[in-house]
Amino acid sequence: MKRGATIFLTLLLIAAVICCALLWLGDRGPTFKGRRTADWVEQALREEPPSEALDAVVQIGAPAVPFIARQGLRNKCHSLYFLSDDYVAAFGMRYPWLYRCLRILPWLSYDACAVRHGQACWLLHSLGTNAQAAIPDVIDCVKNCRGLRYVPERDLIDTLGEISGTNRAAIPYLTQCARRDSSLTLRAAATAYYIDGRTNLFVEVCERLARKNPEALLGTQELFWFREDHELNEHLVPLLEKLYWDPRLPSRSQESAWFELEYRTNDAAAAMARVLARQTNTPGS
Length: 285
Description:
The chain is mainly alpha-helical and 285 residues long. It has 17 helices and 2 strands. The chain has helices spanning 2-25, 37-44, 52-60, 65-73, 85-94, 96-102, 113-127, 135-144, 150-164, 171-178, 185-196, 200-212, 214-217, 221-225, 230-244, 251-262, 265-281, and strands at 31-32, 35-36.
């Protein structure tokens, strides 16, 4: 029995050594300033920009993208739920003694992968459209990472807009995301518009939000981005004028609707005049 256990442990050790060797000897990218690309990316993912590593990754350019995706966007908890932050934290509170024991096993350890995802967004933003190869990895990350909160999710959606250029590969996912009821709905629609310039999805989402909860639409960052977009204002100004008179809006939100019109002065002059005229003719106004 002891001999069998010894053989098993020996084989296990050999397999571990071979795996480590394969990982170490595998492709680590071109050399830049005496270091492999994978090493620069690993350092950049740990440091806040600006940093020497970030500058190095930007200079390496597109060849660094596969390593950013592999090291910054992928994580074993994406496919193994029991390694996600939420699950591990709950497990640790319920079984603290077992949790302490399991933490010594590297494969079963977990990390706050959302932090690395945020750092990866910085790197991809810096590379711009040179990072288009990472579009599928960004989408996979935002769909499958169970450790995300609203800010990292939003950062990943923004990253799709920054790296896509005119590449429409992300449009199907963004359309799907925009048509769901979530905190990312308007951001996904805005990002899709930023990529392909088609107003229909953004207008559709704005109209749906206005019907469901008009206050949720007013004062959003996404409306701010497009205040001078004449093509969008052809659709948004009538919607904002209608929202101004929506009986569900409290007075403070009615002021927000007016400000949104006011910020679009060139496109909203006629609508503002109608609002003022109606106020004048309304008893008690």
